[in-house]
Amino acid sequence: MDSAAKDKMQPTIPPGSSCPGPEWPEQERAEQLARGAALKWASGIFYRPEQLARLGQYRSREVQRTCSLEARIKSVVQSYLEGVKTGVRQLAWALEAMQGAREALSQAHGLLRGMAEAAQTLEPVREQVVQHKQLWALSQLLPRLRAVPAAVAHTQTLIDAQRLLEAYVSLRELEQLQEETWAPLGGLELPVFEGLGPLAEALGQAVEAAAGAAGRLAREDPALLVAAVRVAEVDAGRTTSLEQAPRDWRQRCLRALQEGLERIHFGTLPQPGPGALAEWLEALRVALPAELATAEALVAPCCPPHYKVVQLWAHTLHSSLRRCLQQLLERPELGAADTFTLLQWALHVYLGPEMMGSLELGPEADVSHLEPLLTLENVEQLEATFVAKVQASVTQWLQKVLDGEAAEWGREQEPDTDPSGFYHSPMPAIVLQILEENIRVASMVSESLQQRVHDMALSELSAFLRSFSDALIRFSRDHLRGEAMVPHYVPYLLATLNHQSALSSSLSVLQPDWVAPGALAPVEAALDELQRRICRLVLEALLLELQPLFAALPSRQWLSSPELLEGVCERTARFCQDFRHVRNPAVQLLLAEAERTVVLQYLRALMQGRLVCRGADERTQAAERLRQDAAQLRELFLGLGLEESVQCAPVLLALRELLNLRDPTLLGLEVAGLRQQFPDVSEEHVSALLDLRGDVSREQRLAALSSLQVGPQPSPPTGRRALFSLVPTPAPPPSSCLPSGSCA
């Protein structure tokens, strides 16, 4: 190594430093640690005086070690420098090689530039060569090219004659000739082949037409259908070197099969009109299974297995039918009959054994896993429409029934009777038949529709009962005002009571097992209200006849003769003779109300203060009259068929005890007993009865009345209805008047 190289290898020494500076901070730190360790070692070795004698040995040993380390370092540095020298030499050789390669590339570039200029001068020659090759190819193919127009015309003739296989073979020969000429001519299209595109399209249309009439051809000309399918399948495997889009006749064939089915069965929707939808659906019910049977028996053998003809037929018919039904739903609202027909057909007939669920159809025809014909929203819409239409129709029919029944009330003849002698009318049976029939029809569609129609029927029945009640009120008002003279007013009221009973007893037909308990509660409440209304109208008619008779009771004549009550009983018996035409239990209710009405009128008459007994004899006569009248009323209503346990006439016997008491000081006990039997008796009622006695002083009256306040209010006896609370009392005398005494 020369001195210049050695100088370059020497490390640089920073100014002001006596030793080479570190190339990195860790070196300086390592040097400091080494010096510290050496000092620590030296101080430990020479700490004892006896060790100082061996100082020379230690110095010589360290000198030897230092020399050894320096030798090793020099060896490493020498080997490193030799490696660097070798690398520098190799780099010099590489530089020389690069310069040589650069000069060679420059020479090659110049040669290539010269060759390009030479090639440009040869371009006309190359064009002449290409033209020569094309002319040579044309000369070889010229006889075949001359026959192309005739071949095109012949192929068109074959297509027109529906000889599809022969036409396809001819077309392929022409296309192969076109491919043979295309490559030699460098992609040049000859005018002679311009007719191949329309010719291929004409053949494709013929294949589509045959596929679109697959059902008819499978029966009449299966060879043509097979030829069309074979052409589509063979063309699917065709490859060409021409830059042409694939014809995809297979997909066009399948699409034509589907479009043909849609055109045959769903080309036109049914026109709005009565029965048009039902006829259309009935035609589909017959046609679709037949179409699937034809596909399985005739069309499928004419097509490859991968066509899955039966499944294709089933899915196409299902999808087309679903689309048609959606279009029908977009029209204005269907009528009730069409709505029911569509729901019942789509939910039951279509998937039933008569159509797609037929056992004669294979598993490929199964459409149950496809989307339903009607969505849940469609079904909801149709059910709501059906219920609304049926409700309007039911409302009209029930109104007609009610109008017809109301027209019967003004007849000259009495109401019709059944063989048992009860008043009878077909109205209840007609009403329930209308409602029950609609519920039954709805059950043929779905449970949800049945529930809706059932709720609607109950609502309409409640409305009908309210309308019936209103009609009775108008009928009664017109009769009582004299605006319409009704010869048989009460019999027709009684007939309506039988109608109510018939409706109530037959209401169970509207409560099948699936109806929740309590669903009929509103209707039952309306029937009960109608019954009360009819009974009230009958009793009002009874009151009109009895009020003139009770105007003379009590009186001196009443004390001495039973004629007044006999007149009441006679007129009551005559009035109630038509009750025999009323069925149980309504007749018992009516008799009980009639008897209660008579007793209430009797009590009202007693409370009017028309009679005051003049002495003990008259009080005895009044008490006896009350007993006889109670017995007479009891016998009257027993004879009419009313059970004695429900009669109210025994109240007269309780009043008799109050009049028959001889010692007025004991009136408090009798009043207390009366209060126990009839808790609704008031001070005014007791005062009116004490006035009838005529011998009660003011102090005795107050003592008797005070007994009403003793003890808690008693409960009414079981089965006994209020009487005295319905009996008005005369107004009390003015406070400025003197109290009445025994001389009154």
Automatic annotation (TrEMBL):
<dbReference type="InterPro" id="IPR010326">
    <property type="entry name" value="EXOC3/Sec6"/>
</dbReference>
<comment type="subunit">
    <text>Interacts with EXOC2, EXOC4 and EXOC5; may be part of the exocyst.</text>
</comment>
<dbReference type="GO" id="GO:0030133">
    <property type="term" value="C:transport vesicle"/>
</dbReference>
<protein>
    <recommendedName>
        <fullName>Exocyst complex component 3-like protein</fullName>
    </recommendedName>
</protein>
<dbReference type="GO" id="GO:0000149">
    <property type="term" value="F:SNARE binding"/>
</dbReference>
<comment type="similarity">
    <text>Belongs to the SEC6 family.</text>
</comment>
<dbReference type="GO" id="GO:0006887">
    <property type="term" value="P:exocytosis"/>
</dbReference>
<keyword id="KW-0968">Cytoplasmic vesicle</keyword>
<dbReference type="GO" id="GO:0051601">
    <property type="term" value="P:exocyst localization"/>
</dbReference>
<keyword id="KW-0268">Exocytosis</keyword>
<dbReference type="InterPro" id="IPR042532">
    <property type="entry name" value="EXOC3/Sec6_C"/>
</dbReference>
<comment type="function">
    <text>As part of the exocyst, may play a role in regulated exocytosis of insulin granules.</text>
</comment>
<dbReference type="Pfam" id="PF06046">
    <property type="entry name" value="Sec6"/>
</dbReference>
<feature type="region of interest" description="Disordered">
    <location>
        <begin position="1"/>
        <end position="26"/>
    </location>
</feature>
<dbReference type="GO" id="GO:0000145">
    <property type="term" value="C:exocyst"/>
</dbReference>
